[in-house]
Amino acid sequence: MARTEKPDERVVLAGEYVLGTLDEPTHKQAELLLTNSLPFKRDVWFWERRFARLGLRLRPIEPRMAVWLSIRRRIGKGRVVSRGRHRARLVKAWAYLATAASVVLAVVAVREAQRPPQTTIVRERIEVPVVAPVYVAVLQMKDAPLHWAVSAVPGTRQLKVRADGEVPATLVGQDTELWLIGDAGPVSLGVIPQSGEGFGTLPQGAMLRSGAVLAVSVEPKGGSPTGSPTGPVVSTGAVVRVS
Amino acid sequence: MPPSTLTPAKDTVPDAAPGMGRLASLLDACKRGDEDAFAELYALTSPKLYALVLRILGTRSLAEDALQECYVRIWQNADQYTPERGSPMAWLATIARYRALDLLRRRRHDGTAYDDADGESEVEDASLGPEDEALQSEGLENLDECMQLLAGEQRDIVLMAYYHGYTHSEISARTGNAIGTVKTWLHRGLIKLRDCMGAA
């Protein structure tokens, strides 16, 4: 490929390759070159880095949670921890917990505010006992400055939930209910407060694990009468293991 | 500076911006198979990447497929990330765009009609989020300034190619310009951009 002997030509070819304007045979040649020529590879990286700006200046859009569930299913294949090992870890964790002090952990969640259109990082400090695997999630309301911090320590089936922020008018006179979105559908973790602290309960058989999705729905007073979310889902968030 | 040297010292990525440091350490944990880190990486970055693949593909179902492919690829290839490839966010956006273009080309190849109703003018400028601070620290925001130096038709070609993956001949067909003219415009445009960004 005589074209690539001159640096200018090589840079242009790299730019065309990154943009995707080359016809198929030339694109394939460029791909081959990419594996053989470090200078060409560097030129390609140069354009990839620079043009990324075009891709990242779009207004963020939250994907549906089904996408995450599919990804998790695909990457999680063959990585199941055996029950025996898990139990051993829990026992060990409890031994540590007996003497554990507390630490403060920071959890990061993303929320997409409707206006202004930008991604905001919510940093939530959650106090949890050290050592045992601890799972947390921060659920930010989609269009209101209210969020819930959820934390769970294995060994109990309790979830600590703390609400922070302003309760929007849309929630007045209504309850908010927390759900674990499992493969078989949503499982209620209980009605949660809109201010201050409260507790949810993980039902028998339901497990929190990294990547699990939690959701908050608006329900009539006393919680969903049907056992499934009946009102709008106002927040979703992924569970993250923090220790 | 000889034009062949496209990686001056200023392009190497300092671990300065907090958002970027977090993404870099999450990617690092993903290399070791840490699924928790991957979940957090997804939570932090998926709205940006979804916006990009949706912009390229135009429909939700295709965009969701592309996003899925993209994150599976990220999980499998996290060890291929090096700072030389840009900030973590830039690298993730590159992967997302290539996955979206793959899908788009497959559909075009299958003869499935693809009608991009939206024009280039719909690209929305959003203010930089914290995770984008890395882009600023790399000086990447000067792409916008450098794009302004291009003639209108050069800029249009770059944007058409970036957001739609059009080839020279497709751009020629869409703009009504001869393919040779399209190639020349793009060639000159890329050199101008390289000179502007490389020298900045």
Globally, the shape of chain B reads globular
The pair of chains with the biggest contact is: A-B, 62 and 79 residues
- First and last CA, distance of chain A: 53 Å
Helical content of chain A stands at 25-40%
Shape estimate of chain A = elongated
Q: How large is the radius of gyration of chain B?
A: 18 Å
Order of SSEs of chain B: HHHHHHHHH
Distance between the termini of chain B: 12 Å
Task: Give the DSSP E fraction of chain A (strand runs of 2 or more residues).
Answer: 25-35%
Proportion of β residues of chain B? Answer: under 5%
Helix/strand/pairing category of chain B: mainly alpha
Which regions of chain B are unreliable across 5 or more consecutive residues at pLDDT < 50?
A: 1-18, 113-139
How many helices of chain B? 9
Order of helices and strands of chain A: HHHHHEEEEEEEEEEE
* Count of individual helical segments of chain A: 5
Query: How would you characterize the largest beta sheet of chain B?
Result: none
Structural class of chain A: alpha+beta
Work out the radius of gyration of chain A. Answer: 24 Å
Structure in words:
- The complex is a heterodimer of chains A (243) and B (200).
- By secondary structure, chain A is α+β, with helices and mostly antiparallel strands.
- Chain A has 5 helices and 11 strands.
- In chain A, strands 8-5-4-3-11 form a 5-stranded antiparallel sheet, with no helix packed on it. Chain A has a 4-stranded antiparallel sheet with strand order 7-6-9-10, with no helix packed on it.
- The longest helix of chain A is centred in the first third of the chain and has 19 residues.
- Chain A starts with 6 loop residues before the first helix and ends with a strand.
- About 21% of the residues of chain A have low confidence.
- Chain B has 200 residues and is mainly α.
- In chain B, 66% of the residues lie in helices and 0% in strands.
- Chain B has 9 helices and no strands.
- In chain B, helix 6 packs across helix 9.
- The N and C termini of chain B lie close together (12 Å).
- The N terminus of chain B is likely disordered.
- At the A-B interface, helix 1, helix 3, helix 4, strand 1 and strand 2 of A face helix 2, helix 3, helix 4, helix 7 and helix 8 of B.
